[in-house]
Each structure stands twice: as structure tokens, then as C-alpha cells.
Amino acid sequence: MITVHYLDNSRAHRILWLLEELGLDYEVKTYRRGPDMRAPESLKAVHPLGKSPVIEDGGNVYAESGAIIEYLIETYGKGALKPAQGSPGHSRYLYWLHYAEGSAMPLLLLKLIFSRLPRQVPFLLRGTARLISKAVGAKLVDPQLADHMALWESELARDGFFAGRELTGADIAMSFPVEAALSRVEVSGPMPAMRHYLEAIRARPAYRRALERGGAYGYADT
Predict the structure, then answer these.
(1) pLDDT tens for the chain, residues 1 to 222
(2) 0.70 exceeded by the pTM?
(3) How many other C-beta atoms are found inside a 10 Å radius of the C-beta of residue 160?
(4) Class (C level, CATH) for 88-204
(5) Which end of the chain is more exposed for a tag (fewer CB within 10 A), N or C?
(6) CATH label, 2-81+209-218, candidates 2.40.30.10, 1.10.3720.10, 3.40.190.10, 3.40.30.10
(7) Contact 54, 47 (CB under 8 A)
């Protein structure tokens, strides 16, 4: 049976959702964040970096969200959740599957880090830290995020999903960046395609079952 090493309230939710979409049996081992919101050291016994998600299957350990999604779909999908090779949606599928962690998440992590920076420094330095955080956000992070979110909105407005008119692994990969962005970033417009996309994925029974298995997930109500 597949084992998911699941950090509470994290990107690992996507892996539970994918497993539910594929109808696979799996076990969840849950890890709780510490007061600093970091994963516990016990995760390093599973993978040296101590990150989540990590899965075990057939005696092998798989890390990295994109690699896990690709592995599960290739191994168990039987053609589901992936456009056929050579089809118009296949190149879009590959792009968004890897874009999620390669391009979207670094910017969102920068947004999170600089938003928390003023609270992490000594009291006398907090005023300076707030000025630095505000300047970095205004001049570096926020303009790039605006460009990326405009691209997401445009792509979703085409067909409703990232690689066509049906849900694919690319949508599972992109779900967290979209949820996180709409919760952390001040958007300049209503973003109807992105919000419709969230409504569509959250209405899926597999998404709801994943929430039941994984527990609290702060972005589920963005």
C-alpha cells in the first residue's frame, strides 16, 4: 500500500487529492508543524531534507510534488488525468505540471517570507524590516506575481482547466499556487476564471475526501 507522509496544512493535500481521484488505497502518516511552522525533525527519517509530501510505494521513496504527481499518474493512471501524447493539451500539461513548483511557488514563498520578516527580527529592527519587506514586495515580488496571475487567468479562461477542458495532473499541481495566491496576494481585479476554477476543483468528491483524510487545510476556503 502507498504511504503518504503528510505535513498538516500543506501542499501535501494535493497528493491525497490525486490518490482519491485515482481510486487508490493509501495510508496517511501525519506530521504536525512546530511553533515556527516548520516540519518536525522526524520527517528526516523518511527523506534527508525532511520535507513533505513524501510517499513510499513498493519499497521506494518519492519526494517532490511534481515528481510524485507524475509518478502516480504514469504508474496507476491508466490514461487518466493526462492528455494523450501528441494531443494539443499534452504540451500544456507538461508545462503547468512543472511550472507549479518551478516558477509559481518560489515567488509565493518570497511573498510569505517577506511578509513574516518583521516579526522574526529583534524589536528595535522591526521598523526597518517592515520598510525592507514593503519595498521588496512593491518593487520585486508583487509585480512578478501580478504577471503570473494574469497568465493563470488567461489560461483558465480558455477551457476552464490548465491543460484543456478536463481535469489533469497539471490542475492538481497548480491548485496550491492558485489557492495560496488568492489568499496572500492583493489582486487587481475579480479574477473570475481563477475563482471558477477553484469552485470546480473543490466541488469534486475526490477533493472533499482528501480533506477528510488529511484534516485541516487552511487554503480550502480561500
Answers:
(1) 999 999 888 889 999 999 999 999 999 999 988 877 788 889 899 999 988 999 999 999 999 999 999 999 999 999 999 999 999 899 999 999 999 999 999 999 998 887 777 787 787 778 877 887 787 777 888 899 999 999 999 999 999 999 999 999 999 999 999 999 998 887 778 899 999 999 999 999 999 999 999 987 776 554
(2) yes
(3) 15
(4) mainly alpha
(5) N
(6) 3.40.30.10
(7) yes
